[in-house]
Amino acid sequence: MKPVRGVNPGDADQLVAALVAGRAPNLDEAITVWYAEPAAGEREITVDQTNRSVVVGERAVVKWLLHTDPAGHPAPARLQALVDAGFTAMPRPWGLLHQRNTQSGALQLTAIVTEYLPGTQDGWEWAVEDVRAHVRGAESGALSAPIELGVITAQMHLAFARTGVDTATAAQVHEWCATAESDLAEALELIDGAEGQRLRALATRIEKALRPLAGCVGTPLIDVHGDLHIGQWLRTAKPSAYSVIDFDGNPLQSALKRMQRQPAARDVAGMLASLDHVGRVVIYRTPGVDAAAVAAWIAVAQEMFLMTYRGELSKGRAAYLLDERLLGAFLVQQECREFVYSVRHLPHWRYVPDAALPALLDRLETPA
């Protein structure tokens, strides 16, 4: 098998066969096997730009990592923790391939093999359509999905917590504060036009919303998904079932940062923000839609997600994992990052944080 940057036709078939056989294809490689069954016949998925994914026999997906890092990768430990805990709300992990770095001699993750789930949509498809149907008065999963996702997210965090819980140090909290301030500064620098004017007018309120971060020394830290948003959830049609995917962490961060334990609130804030963003997409892309009805759905969906998440943690006697003091600051920081993301990768996306951030600040500043 060639190095990942020179993947040839047949390599994915060969890797699946190696998992079935239980031995690595070459001497400079190592495999981890959780499950395998015979499958052959390759079909490349062309939409993934970060990695290269190949469906094998319509049974498995081989994700070749195009950008490896000698420091490591978060997915192996995350997947192992979920497998050990019996967590099933994800495509079934089949195995991993590590290849030896010719310079350092260390093994580096090269490929992740998981179950292929045919006929699924990601959340940016199914959630948007659900909300459109909901505001038209039609039956949809717009109110049930946040409940199920809240439960599953908590179950995922409970599984991660079984591998250990740390506490945040003063140095870590200082870094969170510095990063949040840097994200705001970068957004203020990059966003121009009317959106930039509105953002600059909010700067003082944003700074105030970020201040609670400084008081969170000692908050529990666990392994987290690291890049949790609605697009990381696949749904099958009939019967509806949800699967969380992609345990690579935030692709914009270094491998070392992606492997660090984080507050559970980081994933929770990512989900709350993306539920809001679904509503912004619906309003922006649906002519004649009742914007007030969509805004009402955002509030209800976020509360349902949070309520069921809290409840599931409590059932697992781990309510302490969610430090609610972090949620508002992480949400505000996320919107700053959305502005930066729009400039770096998706220019038209700026309408989402432009609409979401003022509403978020209003809500945070309203007495409970």
Protein model, in words:
Helix 5 (170-190) crosses helix 11 (325-344), helix 9 (264-285) crosses helix 11 (325-344) and helix 9 packs across helix 12. Strand 3 and strand 4 form a beta hairpin. The chain is built from 12 helices and 11 strands. The protein folds into 2 domains: 4-115, Phosphorylase Kinase, domain 1 (2-Layer Sandwich), CATH 3.30.200; 121-365, Aminoglycoside 3'-phosphotransferase, Chain: A, domain 2 (Alpha-Beta Complex). It has helices spanning 11-21, 75-84, 123-135, 144-161, 170-190, 193-201, 203-210, 255-259, 264-285, 291-315, 325-344, 351-365; strands spanning 29-33, 42-45, 51-56, 60-65, 93-100, 107-115, 121-122, 166-167, 220-221, 233-236, 241-244. Mean pLDDT is 94; it is low at 1-6. The radius of gyration is 21 Å and the shape is globular. With 368 residues, it is of the alpha+beta class. It has a 6-stranded antiparallel beta sheet with strand order 1-5-6-4-3-2, with helices on both faces. It has a 3-stranded antiparallel beta sheet with strand order 7-10-11, covered by helices on one side. Strands 8-9 form a two-stranded antiparallel sheet.
